Model the fold of this input.
Amino acid sequence: MTQILEKISSIDNELSKRFIALDPGGYFIIYLEREDKLICAEYFTNVINEQGLAADPETGEIIACEGEVERTFEKVYKGRTAKELCVKIFEEIKPCPVTMLDHAAYLGREFIRAEIALINGTDYIQD
Done:
């Protein structure tokens, strides 16, 4: 079993290094509220500049992938399960804030990972 988990982890780590296009609809910061047993996703707007980088729509400043960024989210979505959160974001919000299918697939995977961490009491770190 350990070998299988190591292989899966190795595959996912390699795939995390690939280039992905940024969603002009915005991005999400995912975290857990363990006390309330919730998966949370803060939604932020952005624009994609000519270089393909995410920028703050108000200031035009590049949004760094690492380090701390001082921005205010537009909305926080919360759900008890990955499925509940997906229904809220992808089915109930019109227009949907996610404009790219690969971004939607990524969020679904991350919400499942967050749900598993919530159930198991383990740390969740967004990929």
Observations:
- Residues 18-120 form one domain.
- The longest strand covers residues 27-33.
- Strands lie at 27-33, 38-44, 47-48, 54-55, 75-79.
- The mean pLDDT is 91.
